[in-house]
Amino acid sequence: MDRREFLQAATTTALLAPALPAWGRRRSIVDYSGLDAVTVADERRPRSTAEVSAAVGDWPGAISVGGGRFSMGGQIAYPESLHLDMRQMSRVLSLDPERRTVRVQAGISWRDLQDALDPHDLSVSIMQSFSNFTVGGSVSVNCHGRYVGRGPLVNSVRALQLVGADGSVLELEPSSEVFRGVFGGYGGLGVVTEVELDLEPNARLRRVVEDVGLETYPTRFRDLAQDHRVVLHNADLRPPDFDAPRMISWLATNSPATVQDRLIPRDRNYARNQAAIWAVSELPGGARLRKAVEERLLKEEVVVWRNYEASLDTDSLEPTTRLFSTYLLQEYFIPVGNFLTFARSMAGILKRHNVNALNVSIRHSPADERSLLSWAPTEVFAFVLYYKQRTTGRAKRHAEAWTRELIDAALNHGGRYYLPYRLHATPSQFARAYPEYAAFQQLKTRLDPQGKFRNMLWDKYL
Ligand SMILES: Cc1cc2nc3c(=O)[nH]c(=O)nc-3n(C[C@H](O)[C@H](O)[C@H](O)COP(=O)(O)OP(=O)(O)OC[C@H]3O[C@@H](n4cnc5c(N)ncnc54)[C@H](O)[C@@H]3O)c2cc1C
Questions:
Q1: Is 137 in the pocket of ligand 1 (CB under 6 A)?
Q2: Architecture of domain 204-425
Q3: How far is the CA of 177 from the centre of ligand 1 (A)?
Q4: Would you state the pLDDT for residue 24?
């Protein structure tokens, strides 16, 4: 939907709204990209498992589920569905500092959970690099972060509670087939209502920065990963050549913190970050400006608490408006042995298509043998592409073309792509990337025979 269609739909919705009964108010659900709006029949904000169970049991049609709404291709919505906005289910249910475990309602954000953990000197074990996402949304995509050797979130979840298509409440353990299917299942099997997570000690971390050659990065990473002090790591590739990884690692240390806040304050003002991102992506000398600023900042000695570095806010990336252009992500998971050839192939595609790429961040994950729709069936390097795109129909078609080339490159290197982003992949690319989809579909048919749980992702690919 382009901007004109969006405004039309919004106007129609506003005109219809007074004629509908209170429970039948239609709503537009817009995700982080700001590019699409999906009109749902009703929206509820449950506060308990019982309310989710009643809503699912009573509603005769399609149901869609949303957490933080940071996915970018309609994964949270389906036309004329009942939309469950999970963000009111945000309580910590039990915290056991001795066993280092916590049970939460699935709509809680990592940032809210960090507020509860920090006084106990505990941290989330595995999460994304920003803290705004809900736990349920993170389970459903099987997220990962910069945690060295840890892999996806499934590795730190002890138990789940799921509301099934008939409203029944299931308690799931990691050994169960349904548990395996929920991670990376994008809400297709039911509504995650509670999650029990492993925790780790909060520690002080010292930043270490190192520039290496593209060819030497995999070996240098392997050496680094042997050092038990390394907690977080990523490497940045910058435009226009994407060929000079800058390794940024965070090592456990006893040195005093150079930043006194234990968590990033929620009311921090990001106007300067936003202006800098705009300048880098729009101005002719943007790349030079960025280099100069980064060189200065990265030279500083920084020691922070783990919870501080894990509480980054997506507001720091948010543009002042997404009306004319938007910032998007993509991610490719490549078997470690194919790192170099994929990196070169990716750089060639981005350059050939003049993609306004701000950054490619590299991370690592061991093989994930737990989830059904695993994005890392073998040990992988992840390439996270952050780019800017105009909101016109032409720009969308252009992005679709180069994204399909990148997906082909990933598939030809034995890799996969990540599913929370724009739905540019063709159905055959999806089937090649995730051959386990047939087993997932069978499981879905068994648990949800009427296909109640729907969204734009599963509508396109299942
Ligand atoms: C700036 C930015 C940075 C990111 N960084 C990372 C990163 O470092 N690592 C990474 O892995 N990903 C990253 N992502 C992707 C992010 O992990 C996903 O978009 C994730 O889905 C966000 O969680 P959410 O709560 O917003 O989920 P939503 O977008 O709201 O939902 C995602 C999916 O989960 C389903 N869902 C949500 N809640 C439930 C529930 N309770 N029960 C059942 N289904 C549910 C939805 O139906 C949908 O299909 C990033 C995204 C952005 C925008």
A1: yes
A2: 2-Layer Sandwich (3.30)
A3: 22
A4: 54
